[in-house]
Specification:
By secondary structure, the chain is α/β, with parallel strands linked by helices. The chain is built from 11 helices and 13 strands.
């Protein structure tokens, strides 16, 4: 396959790092923008990667970043905003989508892979997050002369994830009882490397043009089951107490204003719908069960233990 140059927005993030190693294996040339060049210099071990300091929300910077590229991958997004009115989500998802489309048109780029979210819905999404994700997805798919493929994952797990690692940290410092909001909401966690493999397959498959792919793991669990499983893996004895809807709402209202927003009102709204798929994993790929991966990194959570995995990809 002829090597292509791809610009990857959000390439220094959790999913992005796994994707760039997969793309490097297939001979792709990559341009990855970052606002903090020094923080991500470890990526320079990849000879096919060009790390560029840039602000992806600057339309002029996007045009420069896309120069000479044949495709763009958009992984950029946020799970929480600084404010409380949805403006941050709109800026991070919808406004950026408009800027990306304009820059693609300027540089005559026809191919875009876009990270959306399971349950993204521009009109009926219960949260700012899901509505803004849906608006961005709809806009891009309706952009003329742009071949878009969207991916809509359930919660993504893997080393450095913000799901199992966060709960593991909380469980370790929690007292014997662990109150949990929205305990009955269901997830089908998907392995980050399976997500990366789906992106790579789409780049090579013209039949993926215009498609929206839901990405889920092979099994469905309630949030309470996932937290209890996390406790068992890290070897702590905690009784997970599922909160009622009233208490979950109350917790969300309070945590909304704590530093770092450990649980926001918008998070609660997103958890009103199950994050599960109806169909099978795309491209004939077999998704990985979390039980095969999660214990390996939850029980070895130091920074040094993660370096070999990255080196093996490189």
């Amino acid at each position: 396959m002829r090597a292509q140059r791809i610009c990857i927005l959000g390439g220094t993030g959790f999913v992005g790092r796994h994707l760039i190693y997969r793309l490097a294996e297939h001979g792709y040339q990559m341009r990855v923008p970052t606002r903090r060049y020094e923080r991500h210099r470890d990526l320079l071990v990849l000879p096919t990667l060009d790390l560029v300091q840039a602000d992806i929300h600057d339309p002029k910077a996007l045009i420069q970043l896309f120069a000479g590229c044949e495709a763009v991958v958009n992984l950029a997004g946020i799970l929480n905003e600084k404010g409380h009115n949805g403006r941050g989500f709109y800026h991070a998802h919808v406004e950026l989508a408009h800027k990306i489309a304009a820059a693609c048109h300027k540089q005559n780029i026809k191919r875009l892979l876009h990270m959306s979210a399971l349950n993204a819905d521009a009109r009926n999404g219960p949260s700012f997050y899901l509505r803004s994700k849906g608006q961005a997805e709809d806009f891009l798919h309706n952009t003329r002369d742009l071949h878009v493929t969207s991916f809509r994952p359930s919660v993504i797990f893997g080393p450095e994830d913000s799901f199992f690692n966060r709960f593991a940290k909380l469980l370790k410092i929690a007292p014997r009882l662990f109150p949990l909001a929205c305990p009955r909401v269901r997830f089908a966690p998907v392995y980050v490397d399976d997500v990366a493999r789906a992106f790579v397959h789409a780049l090579q498959d013209r039949h993926s043009f215009g498609q929206h792919y839901d990405l889920c793991g092979p099994h469905v669990y309630t949030l309470k089951q996932l937290v209890e499983y996390t406790a068992s893996v890290i070897g702590v004895r905690r009784r997970v107490i599922g909160l009622s809807d009233f208490l979950s709402r109350w917790q969300a209202h309070i945590f909304e204003y704590l530093p770092g927003k450990p649980f926001s009102w918008d998070n609660y709204q997103s958890l009103r719908v199950d994050s599960v798929c109806r169909g099978s994993f795309p491209f004939g790929l077999q998704p990985t069960a979390l039980e095969a991966i999660v214990p390996g990194y939850l029980t070895h959570r130091t920074a040094h233990s993660r370096y070999p995995a990255y080196r093996s990809h490189a």
